[in-house]
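Entry 14. Ran structure prediction on the chain below.
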Amino acid sequence: MPSLGSFSAVSRGGSRVSRPEMATQPKAITVAILAMGGEGGGVLSDWIVDLAESNGYTAQATSVPGVAQRTGATIYYIELFPQSDRQSVLSLMPVPGEVDIVIASELMEAARAVDRGLVTRDRTTFIASTHRVYSMAEKTAMADGRVDSSELLKSCESAAKKFVRDDFARLAEAHRSVISAVLFGALAGTDALPFERGQFEESIRKGGVGVESSLKAFAAGYKSEGNRAPAAPKPEVPQKLDALHSRIEADFRPAAHTMLKLGVQRLADYQDPAYASEYLDLLGPTNQCDPKGDLLRETARYLALWMSYEDAIRVADLKIRPQRFERIRLESRVQSGQLLEIHEFLHPRLGEIADILPAGLGRWLLNTRWAGRLIGRLTRDGKKLRTTSITGFMQLYILAGMRRWRRGSYRFREEHQKIREWLDRIPSLASRDYALALEVAECPRLIKGYGDTHALGSRNFETVMKALSTLNGKSDSAVAIRRLREAALADDSGKRLSEALREVNA
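Output, structure tokens:
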């Protein structure tokens, strides 16, 4: 099977200058878009094709789907050719070294474009979003498995003739649109295509879907070209959180202010402002015993994550938000007058059902075999739910509304008991061994994911906390806790932790 390069060279042979009479033949403008599923790569491709065809160019677009270990990844390839008396021969695939414009919807996709040779120093205008959508290998690593973004940026910078970068995903979110509209604006701002801004905007209007939000996002991308403008407007702080932000400024260590404000916003969205206030209450003792603020900042980070554990209530809440419907409508290119249907596949397990029940009922369900078997039979095949129907939407709406009773649920009681036990250790440790307190503050890193991964992480956390009681007071206890935590994060079998525990005990 021929390689990508050889295939493209053969299919493109007629457009190369191979005969004297073709020496003055106009050259095609080549554009490659690397995008993942749900990011509107197809919409962006359609806009570019419409832009060209509406302004005297012949255009051809192809797409090749692939896998990015995150979600479906697709390379969209477009060639634009000035209309002439001669018949143009356009390629179906990008040729390494012969691409004028490369657009990447995410930083790893940008690195893939460089690795494929699509970006060249003497030719390519390179537009890339600097946000990350982590791969499965990065997500499933028990420790921090993320690729260094700064290294990816350096390779992109050195490969391109012109490199335009920004957190375009954050810009899209700030304007309640999709990233394709922001990238289209960034493309217009580079002047890499021979069209005016108004011609770009007219292509968006012709689409007829989400026009106003897309035009606002387009304008944000246009202004961000070359980092001439700030990366994105800061999201407005909801007025209901003003009092909590003022409390943070007045009562807590400055080193932790940013983390505390992010935690408050996360928990108010997850539950309500009262829950965010409880978050600050829980951090009060740590704040009092920490003159530096480093311990407070790390404790605040992991407390916010732990308090916003994911349950069925949270999932339902996210699925019925208007922003999700609008995003799917834009990504699916639903035209005016067309109907959009969204189907969810739900497969709740026994534990997920028990988690959201009142504490006593949830505990009974988990401890009663016949009830567990009955639930298993009822949920064995899962359930399909049409979110865009009244009945489907109302089922999710009612489930999301259960968050008002979340505080009485089985999972809430269990998690908060563990949270308080962890928090109670930190002030007393800080007064004797600040380094050890910092290590203990980071231990909730072990608790992550769901299902078997969450169960393993919880067991590892309990193992490390039990080891703390025997290590407390020893001169190297901070180092020992770090070794145990890193061993637990090193694999998903628990073997490394068992080995480290034997060494520490020895």
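The chain is about 55% helix and 10% strand. Will compare against last week's run tomorrow.
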